[in-house]
Amino acid sequence: MKRRLPPRSERALTDLEACVLGVVWRDGPCTAYAVRRELAASSTPRWSDSAGSIYPVLDRLMALGLVAATARSWGERGKKVLAATAAGAARLRAWVPQVAAADVCGPTYDPIRTRFCFLAVLPPARRRRFLADAARSTRETLDRLRGNASRRIRPDDFEALSIHASVCELEGRLRWLGRMRRGLTARRT
User: What is the C-alpha separation between 140 and 82, in angstroms, rounded?
Assistant: First the structure.
């Protein structure tokens, strides 16, 4: 028996769809360009801010009735101003608390950790250089994020709290990379 998929309007939003909807809800009324800028500035490199990913997501959200677009005059071309609908806010309220799934509360995607699984393909000196480069790059990103989060964080400043979470995650990665470097150095002797 063939499994029936839920109607498109009832299926779960992808994280990217929900994130785009969230930006429109939080910052709206706004343009698609403003959504792209927000994703580009995110501390999460997983989000693509390309027009090829954002505009189709916005089109899907509009087709689902979760985002509404209003045409405004703007120069010769005009522009669309986006706002979350009541149905969009309701879907966002349903999405935010869904944290029980392993893909939400499990380890975050980490391309350094993924590459580490295959470190044996490199000669020992190159393995050590990989770990040193990863630590240097992580420290640079960490310094940049700490600069963004240097202001005092209020309990309701969710954007700053999110950046703080990224700082904690990268601090953990640096500790792990240090252990791995020490482990490789100890095996060399």
Answer: 35
Contacts of 62 (CB under 8 A, 6+ apart): 68, 69
Cα torsion for 80, 86, 88, 89, to the nearest 10°? 120
Rounded-to-integer distance, Cα 159 and Cα 145, Å: 12
Tell me the domain boundaries of the chain. Answer: 15-101, 107-188
Residue 30 pairs in a beta bridge with: 82
The whole-angstrom separation of Cα 189 and Cα 184 is: 9
Residue 82 pLDDT: 96
Give the pTM. 0.68
Tokens of 42: 């995110």
What residues pair up with 83 in beta bridges, in sequence order? 68
Mean pLDDT per 10-residue segment, the chain (189 residues)? 52 88 93 88 66 86 96 79 96 87 75 89 93 94 77 70 84 92 72
Beta partners for residue 71, in sequence order: 80
Domain 15-101, CATH 2.60.120.10 — does that match?
no
